[in-house]
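User: Please run a holo structure prediction.
Assistant: Happy to. Please share the sequence and the ligand.
User: Here you go; the ligand is flavin-adenine dinucleotide.
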Amino acid sequence: MMKKKLVIIGSGPSGIVCALNVYKSGIKAEDILIIEREDELGGTLNLCIHQGFGKNELTGTEMASELSALVKKNNIPYLVGTTVISITKEKIITAVSPTLGYTKIQADAIVLATGCRERSRGGLSIGGTRPAGIASAGTVQRFVNIEGYLPGKKTVIIGSTDIALIIARRLSLEGGQVLFVCDTRAKPQAHKTDISECLDYFGTPLKLRTTVTRIFGKERVEAIEIADLDKDGKLIKGTKQKIECDSLVYSCGFLPEIELMQEVGIEIKKLTHGPKTDKRLETNVDGIFACGNARIIHDDVEDVMADGKRAGKGVSDYLWFLNKRDRIREEER
Amino acid sequence: MAIKSYDVAIIGAGIVGTMTAFMIGKYKIKCAVLEAGIDVASGTTRANSAIIHAGYDAHEGSLKAKLNVRGSRLVGPIAKQLGVHYNKCGSLVIGYNEKDLEHLRLLLVRGKKNGVRGLEIIEQDRLREMEPNVSKDAKYALYAPSAGIVCPYDLAYAVSENSATNGVDYYFEYKVDKIDYNEVNKLYTISANDKTIKAKYVVNAAGLYSDEIAEILGDKLPFKIIPRRGEYMLLDKSEGKTANHTLFVTPSEKGKGILVSPTVDGNIIVGPNANVVESKADTGVTSEGLSEIAEGARSIVPDINLDAIITTFAGVRATPTSGDFYIRESEKFPKFVHAAGIESPGLAASPAIAEYIVNILRNSGLKFKEKEDYITTRTAEGNCKLFYDMSESEREKAIKKDPRYGKMVCRCEMVTEGDIVNAIRRPISAHTVDMVKRRTRAGMGRCQGGYCRAKVAEIIAKELNISVSEVKKFSSNSNILCGRTKRI
Ligand SMILES: Cc1cc2nc3c(=O)[nH]c(=O)nc-3n(C[C@H](O)[C@H](O)[C@H](O)COP(=O)(O)OP(=O)(O)OC[C@H]3O[C@@H](n4cnc5c(N)ncnc54)[C@H](O)[C@@H]3O)c2cc1C
Ligand SMILES: Cc1cc2nc3c(=O)[nH]c(=O)nc-3n(C[C@H](O)[C@H](O)[C@H](O)COP(=O)(O)OP(=O)(O)OC[C@H]3O[C@@H](n4cnc5c(N)ncnc54)[C@H](O)[C@@H]3O)c2cc1C
C-alpha cells in the first residue's frame, strides 16, 4: 500500500493553497499527495472563463493554471482523473482511476478540499411537467463554456446568485435571449456591480418577489407560469402570467460536498451543511481536516484560499506533533 | 420489406407487458413487444410507490387479492435471478384510535383469508421500537412482514432485457393505432403509423390506454378507466433512517392514503395523494398536491425533514370503475387477451398476472415448448452489476478489465463511465439521458444531474457517434441542447 504523510482530496484553490503551505512549512514534497477527480488541477476555477478572480482580476482558468504551475514547480505529487470513494478513521483512502485501478493509500493526515455541489431544484417544488430544457447553472456552464452549446434560445433564469447572473451574461453574449432573471427574495443575492454588468448592460430585467409556479411542455419546455409574491412570500391573486420560453436555468445555491465525510463519522452542522471543525480546521475525526467550500460555502475565491492556508498550517502542526511523538517513542524504546 | 409475423404480440412495455414477455421468453415462441414510448416503463410503471404489497387490501375472492398474494411471493426470486434491488422490509399500517384498530382487525382477517402470512397487530411500545420516528399518537399497527420494496422500472428493465436476450423483439415508438383481424388466416395485423407486424395471439397490456386498444380492435371493455394521479416527493439519502418499514395510515374511502417508505436505493419516498385528472398523460405535479402530501407525511412522522426534497414526480393510476383487475380473452376476438384495469397492486401482482396471461394463451391453443438454450440472466454476460453494488474485489477486476470503470461520472451515486457504456450497449440500448439515468442512477442523487448531466450526454454522443446536441432527454423531440454558441 502506498504511504503518505498527507493526502489532500481536491485540487481547487483551497486544496492547492493548503498543499503549498504544508510544503513551505518544511514537509517534503514527496510526502504529500493531491488527488483530483477531474483530468486537470484547479477545481471549479476551470469552469469559470470570466474575469474576477483574486487581486489581479484573472479569469478562473488563468488562476487555475497559475496555481497548478506552482504545484508542478515544487514537484508536489498529484493524481488526476482519480476519484476517492472512501476514507476511514485509520486514514486509509480508497481511490479509483482508469490507469491506477482500485488503489488504497495510507496517510497520516487527510485534508478534504472537495468543494461543493449545486443544490437541486427539488426544493423549488414547481408544478407542471418535467420536459427537457431545464438545467442547473453548473450544467449550463459546462455545456456553454466547455462544450460550446446553448441550452435554449429563450431562457428564464431562476435565482439571483452570482452564478445565475454570470450565466445570464454568458448566454446573452453567446446569442441566446435571456427573458429575465427572477428570485422570490426582495433583494438580489448578488452584488450591485454584477447586476449592472450582467443584466442592465444587456437590458435583461430582474424580477424580484417573483416565483415560477408551473412548467409547461411535453418534450421540451414551451412556457412557464410566474406569479408575484407579497411581503410574506404569499402569492398575490390575479398576478399569474404565462410566459413562452424554451429553457429554464436554476441556481439554488451550493452545498458542501460531504459524501466522504458522512461515512467516516464526521459531524455535520445543520446550519452550514458542512463539517464541524476546530480552530485549525480539524474535524471531530483525529487527523482529518476540511477547508474551502467543502467546509463552508465562501463567496470569494480569496476567502477560499485563506481557508486553505489555515488548514495547511493546522495540518502541518499536526504532522510535526506526530513526528515528534514518534521520535520520542523511538528514543524511549 | 416483408411484414414480420409473430406467435404473440404484446402491446405495452409496462411491468405487465414485460413480465409476460419474460415468461414467454423461456419458450420456443416468437414474441414481439410493441411500445408507444421510447423505453420500457414509459407509463405508470415508472412512477408509483414501488411497494410489494403483502395482499391484505383487496377483497377476498377478487382477482386482485389472488394475484397480489401470489405475485408478492414471486417477486423475490425473480429479483434475485436478475439482480434487481428488492428488500423485504415489511409494512406497518398505523392506527391512532379505537376506530382505526377496528379497521386494522378487519384487514388482518381479510389478509389471513387471502393467504397472507405472518400478519399481526402490534401495540405502541413495539411500534416505537421498530419505528422510533413515528408519531407519538400512533397506538397500533398492522405489521405485514412479507411486504417489500423494489425498484419498479429496474424490475421492468431486468425482465425485458432477459426476454430480449432470449429472442423477444422490442419495438419502441410504436403507438398502435390500427388492429385488423383476418378470419381466414386467423392473423392479427397490428399497425402504428407506417409500421406493421402480424401475430396469432395478442396481449393488450397498454395500461391506462387498454380501453382505447380495445376500441381500436372493435371490442369494448365492460367498465371505464378513470385516470387518478398520485404525486410524490423524494428525500435525500441523508434522511434514509426516517423509516425502516413502509408506513401507511389506516385506509379511508379515498384509498390507501399517504405513505412514508424507504426505497431500495436508500432514499425516502413520500406520497401519493389521489386526484382524478382530465388527461391520462397528466403526470405534472401541483403545489397544492405537494402540500397535501407533506401534511399527510407529517401526520405519520411529525419531524420528517421535508427540506431534504431532491425531486418531485407523479404517476397516474388506471382505476377501473369495476374495482378489480380484468384479465381475459376477448369474447368477440379469439386469441386476443385484455389485461386491463391494472391499478395498484399491479406491480406486486405482476409476475402472477403474467402467469395468468400465459395460462389463458395456453388454454386457447398456444404451444409452450421450453428453449434448450435459455439464458437466465439479463444479458449473455450476466446481470450488469453496477460499480456501486460490486464488492471490493469485483471493483478491482472490473477496472482491470475495462478502465472506464475507474472513471467516476456521477459523484452522488458513484456511477462510472463503465456503467454508462454498459447501459448503452445492452440489448435494449439506453440511448437517452433519462434511459441512462434510470438504469445506472447517474443524475438521480442529491444534485440531480447538476454535475454529471453534461458528461452523460458526452458519453452517449461518443458511443452512438452523434453530436452532443443530438442527444435526447427522453423522447424524439426532447433534445437537451439547442444549437451551438457563437464562438464556434
Ligand atoms: C459559476 C461560478 C462563478 C464563480 N465566480 C467567482 C468569481 O467571480 N470570483 C471569485 O472569487 N470566486 C468565484 N467563484 C467561486 C470559486 O470558484 C470557488 O469558491 C472556489 O473554486 C472553491 O474552491 P475549493 O477549493 O473549495 O473547491 P473547488 O474549486 O470546487 O475544488 C474541489 C475539487 O475537489 C475535487 N474532488 C471532490 N471530491 C473528490 C473526490 N472524492 N476525489 C477526488 N477529487 C475530488 C473536485 O473535482 C474539485 O476539482 C465562482 C464559482 C462558480 C461555480
Ligand atoms: C400513484 C401510484 C401508486 C402505485 N403504487 C403501487 C404500489 O406501491 N405497488 C403496486 O404493486 N402497484 C402500485 N401502483 C400500480 C402499478 O404501478 C401499476 O399497476 C402497474 O405499473 C401497471 O403496469 P402496466 O404494465 O399495466 O401499465 P403501464 O406501466 O402504464 O404500461 C403500459 C404501457 O403501454 C404503452 N402503451 C399505451 N398505449 C399504447 C399503444 N397504443 N401502443 C403501444 N403501446 C402503448 C404505454 O406507453 C405504457 O408503457 C401504483 C400506481 C400509481 C399510479
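Chain B touches chain A through 60 residues (CB under 8 Å).
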